[in-house]
Specification:
single chain, about 500 residues, alpha+beta, 6-stranded mixed beta sheet, 4-stranded mixed beta sheet, 16 strands, globular
């Protein structure tokens, strides 16, 4: 089985490239019928200007064959401006402020960019609700995903779908466990024991080996709180877990890891590539990532030493029981400015609908058969060209994707046995995963003041973990927040929004 050489970096890469591509006329995969315009309304090629993010080493270039294939199969000319994840939100803020908008804009969600929410309510973007029923592939995505992306009960955006399971999770060096005769941990106490053994025994023989890189360490908070993020539903209401005793427990757990040298001392200022250098360099045995990105990041390590086995955990338990987070079901949302004529809106929806078809999603993830992949027993075997042409979830998958519950199980170059193992892990996660009840909910006070509160909370967490402040400082902050009128107003507004959502169902 061929294995692609994958070197896909999530580093904050300041890159803007305008991709202007012409349609070509060769026969598409799927037969001549795929050459016809998706909406069946016009044979005229339509030019679409699109802004999207990317999270791989390089975005698709100006001669990318997959972009050309999308153009050919949808009768479009796609001018895609790809912007690195690291600077994307800044780019969006500048763009929205300018008012000079492309035909299609990719956003992280409906709430992260406050200016977008304001502009939606000012009528600056299309309400797509009455149009979407005509696009079967888009509508085939689970209803929960569409519900998670509604604004005021309406669909102003199209979710770029992802599975509800298989997102950020803890992953562990299974080969290190086997070498040290340890079992896969199922509780936070057992995980601590494993981390300590990894540090003390340094299975790869590296000086300054750590138990855990501390990447996505909010998983520890979530596990102790039994919550998927800041908000937890209890008896029909949202509570802020920041104020709960379990958050205090999570901070003290991390402090214990810090005090015993089981995590990097400078974890608070480390970048993604530094976390991954520890993991792939044999200096840490636990890290955090989505299941497919775990493979992408560790692929070169595995190629150097096939005995290396990174295995995602199904779940981990603390006082609130077994926990693993359920995903939002989307990697971002696509919005269409009201300045775009209705005929063009339908063409854009047709493009997204094609991208959500089996054929379009296959093109997005795997490329062109015979060029980027072959199929063996129904399994996509990708080659080096798929990597060179920047395929997959980190590029085209940011725009075009069919809902597939096992999408996070696969990454280019992955052997079939790893894929099958990952599918079983995802199945197991689906039985215990916890959704985020606050997805898509907004508080006006939080828009104004939330960032300040979040910084104060996060900074103090780090100070306590690193011993620069005592746990009594955390206790005082919690007591102050309970008496803070604006902070309590955020909680009230979030609960009002939550009640409105429940009432609209």
């Amino acid at each position: 089985m061929k294995k692609a050489s994958v070197r896909l970096s999530l580093a904050a890469l300041l890159a803007l490239s305008l991709v202007t591509l012409a349609a070509c006329s060769s026969e598409p995969q799927g037969g001549a019928a795929a050459n016809k315009p998706v909406d069946g309304q016009s044979e005229e090629t339509v030019t679409l200007n699109i802004l999207s993010n990317f999270s791989i080493a390089q975005p698709p270039g100006p001669d990318n064959p997959v972009t050309k294939e999308f153009e050919k199969r949808t009768n479009t000319k796609l001018n895609i401006t790809w912007v690195s994840d690291g600077v994307y939100n800044d780019k969006l803020n500048v763009l929205l402020a300018s008012g000079d908008l492309p035909d299609l804009i990719k956003l992280p969600d409906t709430t992260t960019i406050p200016q977008f929410s304001t502009m939606v309510r000012q009528g600056a973007f299309w309400d797509l609700t009455p149009l979407l029923k005509d696009y079967k592939n888009l509508m085939d995505s689970p209803a929960q995903i569409w519900e998670n992306t509604k604004m005021d009960g309406k669909n102003f955006v199209v979710p770029i779908v992802r599975p509800l399971e298989g997102g950020a999770t803890l992953a562990i060096r299974r080969d290190w466990l086997d070498k040290l005769h340890l079992q896969m941990p199922t509780t936070m106490d057992e995980l601590y024991t494993v981390m300590k053994a990894f540090k003390e025994n340094a299975p790869d023989g590296k000086q300054n080996t750590y138990g855990y890189t501390m990447r996505t360490n909010e998983i520890i908070d979530n596990t102790f709180n039994g919550s998927n993020g800041k908000w937890k539903e209890v008896d029909g209401k949202l509570i802020d877990v920041t104020l709960e005793p379990t958050m205090r427990d999570a901070i003290l757990y991390k402090k214990k890891l810090f005090d015993e040298g089981l995590i990097p001392p400078d974890f608070a200022i480390m970048k993604d590539d530094q976390f991954w250098d520890l993991a792939t360099g044999g200096s840490a045995g636990v890290t955090g990532e989505t299941i497919e990105a775990l493979w992408r990041w560790t692929y070169d390590q595995w190629k150097r030493d096939p005995s290396v086995v990174w295995e995602p955990l199904v779940s981990i338990a603390a006082s609130q029981g077994q926990f693993t987070a359920q995903n939002s079901g989307f990697i971002g949302v696509a919005a269409i400015p009201k300045s775009v004529p209705e005929a063009k809106v339908k063409k854009i929806l047709s493009l997204l609908d094609y991208g959500a078809s089996l054929e379009g999603s296959t093109l997005s993830q795997y490329g062109i058969e015979g060029v980027h992949y072959t199929k063996e027993d129904g399994y996509f075997v990708t080659n080096e060209q798929s990597v060179k042409d920047s395929l997959g979830t980190g590029s085209f998958g940011k725009l075009f994707m069919k809902h597939d519950p096992y999408m996070y199980a696969f990454a280019p170059g992955m052997p079939k046995d790893v894929f099958e193992r990952n599918k079983k892990i995802i199945d197991a996660k689906s039985k215990v995963s916890t959704p985020n009840p606050a997805i898509g909910l907004a508080s006006e006070t939080n828009v104004k003041l939330g960032a300040e509160y979040t910084k104060k909370i996060d900074d103090l967490k780090v100070q306590v973990i690193m011993g620069k402040a005592g746990i009594d400082a955390w206790d005082k902050l919690v007591a102050d927040l309970k008496q803070d009128a604006n902070y309590q107003k955020i909680i009230q507004e979030m609960n009002s929004a939550y009640k409105e959502r429940l009432a609209s169902k």
